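Quick note —
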Amino acid sequence: MAKTASEQLGIQGLGWIVRRTIQSPAALTAFYQAALGLRQLRPAAPTGNVMMWAGDIGMFELSALTQGVDSDARKDDLSFLLRARDYGKAKAAVLGAGAKVEREETGKNRTLYVRDPAGLLFGVWEVHAGSSFPPDARADAIWRSGALGLPNTPALPHDLQDIASVNLKVADPVALAAFYHDVLALDLLGAPTAKGATLALGRTTVLELHPGGVKRAALTDRNQSPDAWILRVYDQAALTARLKAKSVVILNELSITGGRLTYALDPEGRVFGIQQRTPDLLPPGATERIEDALARRLWAEA
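Predicted structure written out below.
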């Protein structure tokens, strides 16, 4: 199968969703473990950051908001949905953990939106076999193959599979879809309209742009944002240069243990990132993280 334009740039797919709140990351970790069965991969970092596996190559990170205000007005700017193969079982687990129901959409693919103890929005989305929508068809093939696991890590419970969508509430879906299509070469899945737009993030996850949001005030550091979504990539330097060439605002360029990470702003002031994690970026004697090894193997097989 030929690589997509974004894959040719070295983009594999959604790697991380980061949420920063004034709530204790430890307390929120316990909630997400109960509600969704997300697997904490390592002890919390000295800063309190907690990394959890959310299926496939997706990670969910909780950390403290150290700058800015945890404003209710921006808590709905980013939400995410997990793909549920047994909607009833997943719904029962989420409600049993004490999540507050925001709304439920019925129909062929039922969707439950809830809030965590910090007031942040997430949900579960019912899927069925046989979909022709490319990300869902790929997810269905992965599910049927049984290739769902992270080494030495139990599968997600409640028949949850992975992160199906990252949802942004935006001011102008059409303009923002054009931006992400241009700078990251994300495929448009249908024609964008004022009612919304959908782009492929890679593998089984999509980026949904919904109307009703507003532009954020300009930020100067990623720690000022309560949320960010980050792509796992394999040519971070070239992609960062591409962003700069297209006049994208760069917030941070970081070298971290085993990786390099760039945070940037879209035209409405929302934070997104690109991160590369490969063995050659590890210090001598360090062991590659299991999620990075899995992602790299899947990238090579693709």
